[in-house]
Amino acid sequence: MQIDSVTELLGIANFKVAYMVYHGEKRMELVLEQTNYLPCICSGCGRVHKNPVHSIDTVRVEDLPISGKRVFLHVPKRKSVCSEDGSIRVEEHKWLKGRVTWRYAEHVYRLTSITSNKEAGWFLGLDDEKVYRIDRRMLEELALKRLEPINAPRHMSVDEVAWKKWHKYVTNVVDMDKRKVIWNHDGRGKGTLDKFYRKIGKKGCNKIEAVVSDGARGFLSSTKEHLKNTLIVLDHFHVKKYLNDAVDTVRKEELRRARQQNNEELSEILHCNKRFILMQNKVTNKKMDILEKLSSLNERVYKAMLLKEQFLSIYVAGDRKTAYTNLKEWIVAAIKSEIPSFVELGYKFFRKRHYVLNYFICKITSAISEGINNKIKRLKRMAYGYRDVKYFLLKIHQHCGLLNPKPST
């Protein structure tokens, strides 16, 4: 391979290949030299110094592979006295990022956006620690450019996801129009979300038209404090989850009682393998058969199922006024049912009735946010968990936010 051709192939400004140190089946090592003398850029202060050269060292860095062979470059680096602090500093090359070239670091960052660090390291022949250092440095530099300042969304969703055991959570704010995470922070509750609203300021808060949430007390109080005229919507997917949990509580209670009374027929219907038929929102033939049997076998579970179906019919209403009438009737029916889980749910929906009904003004849900949460959980499983929460927050932006290298569609 001609040296001039390799120089042209590398395309590094002001450097050429002097000679090849090693050329084997899996790697090649090239010695570079400067073509033109330029003043040193100090790595300490970032300024150009015209001081005399103190000494010259050579560093070995890795570049993108050529024809499947790993490429290592021996790059000369001059040392000179820094005019700012008087220390001897090595010169800085803009195309280098530590012990790898900038384009190689970008290659690692793009690869870790679709797979785990461990798999990326195996593919590139790097150890996990080196992949971590390169990836984190790239993410930190990109975060300064792309995550600041925050552009306030028109419609946003806020949710939390666990990153570690013992109630360790991170809060994610999603721009529902962009379908991306625009801000996140470790912790949850009012204090955490307050940081986001203070970050975007009053001007940004005024741009937000609607917020969809799971109804957590901390998120609601923070939003009401900072967004005076913004519509708050209680996500109907979480509403359905509350209903399913209430039905499941009744099912477990009656299953326990049926087993104590040796009622095999009822135990078989209420067994956990039939749970998903009872919990599903669609009315199927299997579900109808179970409801028909429950009407004669157990009135309590049957009544709980009817209450659930009655509430779901509220979302079929075409306008807010009709939905309000239906919700009012349901709350009364739930409290009169004397089923503890539904009595509690009735009072809960009474307190948050305005947020439930706001769905009919602005029909937005947290479906996008829930999908992003699934991606985050997958990311956590691929890495077998994260010990460093700051790195985990950056990885969320890389896979689900503004640091994703994939072009927006």
Average of pLDDT: 87
Structural class: alpha+beta
Number of helices: 16
Q: What fraction of residues sit in β-strands?
A: 15-25%
Helix percentage: 40-55%
Domains, number = 4
Oligomer: single chain
Number of strands: 14
Q: Which consecutive residue ranges, at least 5 long each, have pLDDT under 50? A: none
Overall geometry:
elongated
Largest sheet: 5 strands, mixed
SSE succession:
HEEEEEEEEEHHHEEEHEHEHHHHHHHHHH
The end-to-end distance, rounded to whole angstroms, is 41 Å
Which value, in Å, is the CA radius of gyration? Answer: 30 Å
Short description:
The chain has 409 residues and is α+β, with helices and mostly antiparallel strands. The protein has 16 helices and 14 strands. Strand 3 (40-41) and strand 4 form a beta hairpin.
Could you walk me through the main structural features you see in this protein, from its secondary elements to its overall organization?
This protein has about 400 residues and is of the alpha+beta class. It has helices at about 5-10, 100-110, 115-125, 130-145, 190-205, 215-225, 235-260, 265-270, 275-280, 285-295, 300-310, 320-335, 340-350, 355, 365-380, 390-400, and strands at about 15-25, 25-35, 40, 50, 55-65, 70-80, 90, 95, 100, 155-165, 170-175, 180-185, 210-215, 230-235. Strands 1, 2, 5, 6 and 7 form a five-stranded mixed β-sheet that branches. Helix 5 (about 190-205) packs parallel to helix 6 (about 215-225), helix 7 (about 235-260) packs antiparallel against helix 8 and helix 10 packs across helix 11 (about 300-310). The longest helix is centred in the middle third of the chain and has 25 residues, at about 235-260. It starts with a helix and ends in a 9-residue tail after the last helix.
